[in-house]
Design goal:
The chain is mainly α and about 120 residues long. The protein contains 6 helices and no strands. The longest helix has 27 residues.
Length: about 120
């Protein structure tokens, strides 16, 4: 029934199909940009970070390790990249949604749902 209602809403809301298609394309692009901007660290990146950390004075090294809960850099750096990517994607998606409001308002959705229920005998 949800699929049928979704199809009904798509069919009866002017511009909703186009909005959904544009949103899908934009979100794919945002995800690609996030991966380009915050790629997973390579073993060379991790080795370089470990060497840079090892060169720090003991107190600074301990401070940095405390900040990441003593996780090794091989564990911390990929998690950090994923977190930054997720944040970038969420910011981009929210910005796109603010700039491109959906043509399906909650009032219109309620009205169309009632019409759908009547039309399909529910």
């Amino acid at each position: 029934m949800d699929k049928a209602r979704e199809a009904y809403l798509l069919e009866h809301t002017p511009g909703l199909k186009e909005h959904d298609a544009a949103q899908h394309r934009a979100f794919l692009q945002i995800e690609e940009d996030a991966l380009a901007r915050h790629p997973d660290p390579t073993p060379d990146n991790i080795a370089a970070a470990e060497a840079a950390e090892a060169a720090l004075p003991s107190r600074k090294r301990t401070e940095i390790q405390l900040r990441r809960s003593f996780e090794s850099l091989a564990v911390h750096l990929p998690k950090d990249a994923r977190r930054k990517r997720k944040s970038f994607v969420q910011r981009g998606q929210r910005a796109w949604n603010r700039a491109n409001p959906t043509p399906l308002t909650s009032e219109l959705e309620r009205t169309l749902t009632v019409a759908f229920m009547k039309a399909h005998g529910h």
